[in-house]
Request: fold
Amino acid sequence: MRKIFLLAFLFSLSTVAQVKDSVNLDNPNATIYTHIYYLQQDSYQPEKSAKTIYGLSEKEAIATAIKIKRVLDGKGLQIDFNKIPNNPDYNDTIGYSKFYKYVLFPERMPLISVEKRGNYWYYSAETVDKIDMLYEAVFPWYIDRIQEVIPGYGHKKFLGVEVWQYAALIVLLLLTILIYYIARRIAFFILQRILYRFIKEHAPSINKALKKLAHPISLLVALALVDKIFPSLQFSLEVNKWFLLSINIAATVFWIYVFLKLAKVLVILYEAFTETTDSKLDDQLVPILGNFLTGLIVVVGVLKIITLFGVNPTAVIAGASIGGLAIAFASQDTVKNLIGTVMIFTDKPFHIGDWVQAGEVVGTVEEVGFRSTRVRAADTSIYQIPNSKLSEMVINNSGLRLYRRYNTQLGIRYDTPPELIEAFVKGVREIILAHPDTKSDNYIVEFNGFGDSALLIMMNMYLKDLAWATEQKSRHQIHMAIVKLAKELGVDFAFPSTTVMIEQFPEKNAIDLKYNTDSARIDTVLEQQIANFKTNIGDASKE
Reply:
């Protein structure tokens, strides 16, 4: 009986020992937990941790497992086991093919992963093949040499940190400052060369913006040095995690600054390009393009910062897309206006400063925004027209006419002699030809009809300048010249009236209107008035 009890006791001990010595590799979570747990100080059993390495001898597997953990600790990558799947058949691919693999840190360390072999999960063959390269990148060869020459007192701890680590941190700080100043000078020199060689013609406008790039670029070089060397100082995982996280956030902020400055340079170059084009609508696109690039850079930068805290970028983008759809459905008018804005800039039905008629609105286009277009009427009031409606309207754009047509009737008295009519018509023609803003090869001045109270002389001409204000100024100058010509010739303009002519009446004489029709005088008046008009026009153009 005692022998049976002793055998049962020994069997139970061996069973407990086997359970205690066993490792769990059934799923990604269990494999990674086994690897990390048995390399902790309180539960250090590297031979069990090495079970997560497939295809190597125990000695090589132990070395590989230790290197994997040191690489993760050195880069400050703390594993969150709540996010690691427990599914034995976890598949990270989409489709019919089955590829059982899980990457621990897809963004920051994509080469370290676990994969399924048979019924168990191990660190992937890619990880095992690349671990030496990763380890040398995090802990360069000189680290072991430095460790060998550090005297005993260098390993004494103060506040949980060894003395040699303090000294190395000071050296790293001084080296970073030195690299910063060197990199700033080099970056400034290179930017100057780029400025001189490629964009020399726009150098005054973008010189200041490019110079500001040297500062963040040199800071990025210094941060890259710190990110490269700091893991070699072998601080704890917690210290590495927060310090390197801060470095990555700072680097992202500096990159945002760099791209914002580059966007500003692009906007300046585009603005210089728009000045060479006739379209004024391109000028309005400059601030819109600047705001768009700024918003895009900031959004991408914030997304990058969010991913540094372990948030899955795919989930963020998917959430943003769903949110964007919800907002789009909730604000359909805004989306329509945005599409209308795109159509306006694509079709270019008008330019900034054009005089347009859109429905009941008539005025000058002042601004085209993301949502609406601003039109100023002749009475200086402002109309805000939604771009969605404006893109569907029939727009009469006076600014796109080749010329501004001006057609009017000049009415002179019925009793004007034929000689003065001919002289007046000839003088008006000469005035039109003398004005610099008229189209000299396309005009008509003819005696074309008899009105109720006047002889009608049609004046039809075209003005070259499309600006409304310039048109009014040209009309004024031509009108004044015609009035002066009529006065000197003795031609009177008619106005609506009724004249009773009494030819025979006792003791009354008929109206005797006297006109001077001397041909020499008429030629002298025409020559003098046209010469005066040309002089006045020349003086006005100089002003």
